[in-house]
């Protein structure tokens, strides 16, 4: 920043910080909503199946390599939390011999959530995308279009990257998301 004063640099720093806080707040709200939509839709396909999220048959068979990594990650979440009696995983394992998906999603980081949704069968991803439309309409004025799965997954990837920029205090200004699927609003 040739020729910039210390005050200008400081103001740019505070501006970047404030924008990241606002974005992170919105992203955390969307993440919470997305976790519970995904859990609800997954529960529909694995009704009454204990630990159904550890069953590879509940995921997209074309993503088998990803599925194994996801199942391993979910198993790690369970095993690392089952020994501490101050959380819901411990309670559900020791009381019900099962941890429902809506309990487990609370322990997902955004990357795990993204992988979970990406690995679900296309029909389930489509239901999640449809469920997201109401949330988007409530938070994006003028949104009135469809939300295809490919666009949803692209958005989730971009939100994940932006979340990490904000959460880890990296520079947001001039950051460009890597996912290149573009949302095009319907023509009027």
Structure description:
By secondary structure, the chain is mostly helical. It has one domain (27-167). Helix content is 63%, strand content 0%. The chain is built from 7 helices and no strands. It has helices spanning 6-45, 64-81, 88-96, 101-104, 110-119, 122-139, 149-167. Helix 1 (6-45) packs across helix 5, helix 1 packs across helix 6 and helix 5 packs antiparallel against helix 7 (149-167). The longest helix is centred in the N-terminal third of the chain and has 40 residues, at 6-45. It starts with 5 loop residues before the first helix and ends in a 21-residue tail after the last helix.
Write the SSE topology:
Blueprint: H1 6-45, H2 64-81, H3 88-96, H4 101-104, H5 110-119, H6 122-139, H7 149-167
Helix pairs in contact: 1-5, 1-6, 1-7, 2-5, 5-7
Name some characteristics of this structure.
globular, mainly alpha, 63% helix, Abi_system_AbiD/AbiF-like, Abortive infection bacteriophage resistance protein, single chain, 188 residues
Short characterization:
By secondary structure, the protein is mainly α. It contains seven helices and no strands. This is Abortive infection bacteriophage resistance protein.
Number of distinct helices: 7
Specify the biggest β-sheet. Answer: none
Average pLDDT number: 87
Over the alpha carbons, how many angstroms does the gyration radius reach?
19 Å
How many domains in all?
A: 1
Class based on secondary structure composition and strand pairing = mainly alpha
Q: Which ranges are low-confidence, i.e. pLDDT below 50, for 5 or more consecutive residues?
A: none
The helix content, as a percent range, equals 55-70%
Topology as a string of helices (H) and strands (E):
HHHHHHH
> How would you sum up the global shape?
globular
Span of the ends, CA to CA: 43 Å
């Amino acid at each position: 920043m040739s020729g910039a004063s210390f005050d200008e640099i400081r103001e740019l720093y505070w501006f970047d910080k404030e924008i990241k806080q606002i974005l992170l707040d919105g992203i955390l709200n969307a993440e919470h909503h997305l976790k519970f939509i995904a859990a609800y839709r997954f529960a529909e396909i694995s009704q009454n199946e204990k630990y159904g999220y550890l069953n590879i048959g509940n995921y997209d068979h074309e993503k088998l390599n990803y599925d194994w990594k996801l199942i391993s990650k979910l198993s790690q979440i369970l095993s690392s939390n089952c020994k501490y009696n101050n959380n819901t995983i411990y309670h559900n394992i020791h009381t019900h011999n099962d941890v429902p998906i809506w309990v487990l999603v609370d322990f997902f980081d955004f990357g795990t959530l993204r992988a979970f949704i990406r690995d679900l069968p296309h029909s389930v991803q489509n239901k999640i995308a449809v469920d997201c439309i109401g949330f988007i309409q409530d938070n994006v004025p003028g949104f009135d279009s469809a939300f295809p799965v490919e666009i949803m997954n692209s958005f989730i990837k971009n939100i994940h990257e932006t979340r990490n920029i904000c959460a880890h205090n990296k520079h947001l200004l001039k950051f460009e998301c890597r996912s290149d699927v573009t949302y095009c609003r319907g023509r009027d």
